[in-house]
Amino acid sequence: MLSLTGPRAFVAPGCPLVLLCLLVATCPHRAEGDPADSSFTSLPVREEMMAKYSNLSLESHNISLTGESSSPVEKNITLEKPSDLELLCLFTPSGDLNSVNVTWKKDDELLENIDVFNTTKVGNTLYSQYRFIIFNSKQMGNYSCFFDGEKNLRGTFNIKVPSIHGKNKPLITYVGDSTVLKCECHDGHPLNWTWYTSNGSVQVPIDVHKNDKYVINGSYANETRLKVKHLLEEDGGSYWCRAAFQLGESEEHIELVVLSFMVPLKPFLAIIAEVILLVAIILLCEVYTQKKKNDPDDGKEFEQIEQLKSDDSNGIENNAPRLRKNESVEQ
């Protein structure tokens, strides 16, 4: 005997087909989604965010500007997780406060949601507040308050995730050795760390499970260490460590230089060659000087030969007039 499930199980064989259709139409269908989802999405976005992040503590930052200011004022804000953020700009003009207009921008985009702004005047100071919940990476960036009037002054809040610190100078090591690359975060605790190496202009993730050349570890959550074993010259290049936070990612670059043992020996060999050449020149000079000292007669012999040559030439010249005299006497 067949057992029926679903709407048809509640319909007797004699019931009209119309009743069966009505029951099917009134039953929830999986393709339409969970009713809880539909009721959740029907809430206004602001109420949804306030309900989801109602336990966040308020984090307030302010910037002060005066009419005498001649340059923009900036303030850096570091966030690693969702926050209820209040940005406050205080402006004290040198002229009429009523002629000053306040606008806010995120990067280069004008913010027009007046529900999150609150601008008040207390004495001769204008307070402009922008309060919102920051919960994803798209909201990170630069938020600026502009005071249009005297000098169009601007105050900017630079909101970013914590920065990563590594070794600024290239790390130099040698073929066959092992080395450790280290990155750390001083202002937060990343959710996870990832190491990359360069393949031309592309960053390639390092998978320690597929390549036993690398070992990734760290003693604390805010640091990571990459150990590279059995170094080859081709292991040199650019390495990146990337930290992931709830509000975005931050990365640092480390340069690794792997040298062969011949590289440090080249200057040493060049110095040795220069020393050998210099010693050879000195020895040749010494041999020549010693030989000259041991053969002093060579110079005298040379002088005697020169003297004999001169004497012979003088004798010939002296005999020539004698022969002429004898020839004249005979005649």
From TrEMBL:
The chain crosses the membrane at residues 268-288. Residues 292-331 are annotated as: Disordered. Pfam families: I-set. Keywords: Immunoglobulin domain, Membrane, Signal, Transmembrane, Transmembrane helix. InterPro entries: Ig-like_dom (IPR007110), Ig-like_dom_sf (IPR036179), Ig-like_fold (IPR013783), Ig_I-set (IPR013098), Ig_sub (IPR003599). It comes from the Eukaryota. Residues 292-312 have a biased composition (Basic and acidic residues). Residues 1-33 form the signal peptide. Residues 72-145, 162-257 form the Ig-like domain. This is Embigin.
